[in-house]
């Protein structure tokens, strides 16, 4: 492809999407980006509209892998529109399938599962691609039995291809959630073996991430933290910042369970930074909720002199109080802090109690008097 001029390449553009897809999975992101950009430019300038959906689908997958979720979502939407323009139902289904992982990270597992119900590609290969994203959503939606059913149609004992690491890792996490500890540990070891044979950093990261979850659910917390560190290292090598953040988040969960609250806070902080940089809004909200639960567990020294003052508030309660003082409604606060309205109401009730006030105006007055003091 690189040896052809644009005039020669315009009749062979259909080769570029599968080439870029292969380069994506071999973690040659620069080559994939270059080939897709060239393909789009030639297709647009030469009226090759039939190739655009394929190019955009591959481009969406590349953006998701490299942590550019807003780009991934838009490219997927553009691919769908391009498929509609040429009247291809199969390409429409593929364009929907490629957006599923981005939907999980940005909108949450339930939204992704709803979207998946509208994607029905006819090819076995694209059905497997869609199911791989569905399994991720099912795990995050706490549906381990559904994961076992979905994976059963794709993972065979002799499987050793790129997808096998994902299927084996997903099944290991589902089995651990179902308390099938021995099977889960064996599957996670199998995933590590498959990933080691492939020797691709991203897949090695996936296997270590699954092992992190399995060991945590089995109660082996120090080992779980070590696996999370290994996963973060492999994902860093793979150039996948979103998954680096996932490794930090899982490691922080294990540290919190083990009682290392300071280490957990540091891990959650790094996860939040990573998710925010990738525009992973649902994952960011999720880790903030985990951090909030950690704050509730933290021992706090009693300060009788702080009763009835702003100093009596926790960090999250102070955030809520400041937004109340700024005039935001509970729903607006919930949206801003990625919390539910009921959680905001609970925080506000504690703010009223701790500040010894009975209204939002009273909260504003207390904060104002503190600032003046």
Describe the structure.
About 2% of the residues have low confidence. The protein is globular. By secondary structure, the chain is mainly alpha-helical. The chain contains 21 helices and no strands. α7 runs antiparallel to α8 and α9 packs antiparallel against α10.
Describe the secondary structure blueprint for this structure.
Blueprint: H1 6-9, H2 16-25, H3 29-45, H4 52-65, H5 69-86, H6 89-97, H7 100-107, H8 109-116, H9 124-140, H10 144-152, H11 162-177, H12 181-198, H13 201-217, H14 221-238, H15 241-258, H16 261-278, H17 281-297, H18 315-325, H19 330-337, H20 341-355, H21 360-372
Helix pairs in contact: 2-3, 2-4, 3-4, 4-5, 4-6, 5-6, 5-7, 7-8, 8-9, 9-10, 9-11, 10-11, 11-12, 11-13, 12-13, 13-14, 13-15, 14-15, 15-16, 16-17, 18-20, 18-21, 19-20
């Amino acid at each position: 492809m690189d040896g052809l001029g644009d005039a020669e390449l315009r009749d062979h553009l259909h080769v570029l999407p599968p080439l870029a897809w292969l380069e994506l999975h071999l973690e040659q992101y620069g080559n994939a980006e270059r080939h897709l950009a060239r393909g789009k430019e030639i297709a647009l300038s030469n009226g090759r509209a039939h190739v655009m959906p394929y190019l955009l689908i591959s481009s969406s997958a590349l953006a998701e892998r490299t942590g550019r979720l807003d780009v991934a979502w838009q490219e997927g939407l553009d691919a769908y529109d391009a498929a509609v323009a040429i009247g291809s139902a199969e390409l429409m289904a593929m364009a929907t399938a490629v957006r599923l992982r981005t939907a999980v990270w940005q909108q949450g597992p339930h939204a992704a599962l709803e979207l998946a119900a509208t994607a029905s590609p006819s090819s076995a290969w694209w059905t497997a691609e869609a199911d791989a994203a569905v399994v991720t959503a099912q795990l995050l939606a706490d549906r381990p039995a559904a994961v076992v059913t979905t994976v059963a149609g794709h993972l065979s004992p002799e499987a050793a291809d790129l997808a096998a690491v994902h299927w084996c890792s997903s099944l290991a996490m589902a089995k651990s959630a179902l308390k099938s500890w021995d099977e889960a540990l064996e599957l996670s070891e199998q995933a590590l073996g498959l990933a080691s044979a492939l020797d691709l950093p991203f897949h090695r990261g996936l296997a270590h991430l699954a092992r992190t979850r399995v060991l945590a659910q089995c109660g082996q917390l120090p080992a779980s933290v070590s696996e999370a560190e290994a996963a973060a290292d492999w994902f860093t090598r793979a150039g996948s910042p979103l998954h680096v953040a996932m490794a930090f988040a899982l490691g922080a969960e294990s540290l919190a369970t083990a009682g290392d609250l300071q280490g957990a806070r540091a891990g959650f902080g790094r996860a939040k930074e990573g998710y925010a940089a990738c525009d992973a809004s649902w994952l960011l909200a999720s880790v903030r909720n985990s951090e909030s639960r950690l704050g509730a567990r933290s021992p706090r020294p009693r300060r009788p002199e702080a009763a009835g003052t702003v100093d009596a508030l926790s960090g999250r309660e102070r955030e809520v109080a400041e937004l109340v003082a700024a005039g935001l409604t509970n729903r607006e606060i919930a949206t801003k802090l990625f919390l539910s309205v009921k959680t905001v109401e609970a925080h506000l009730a504690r703010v009223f109690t701790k500040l010894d006030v009975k209204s939002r105006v009273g909260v504003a007055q207390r904060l104002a008097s503190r600032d003046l003091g």
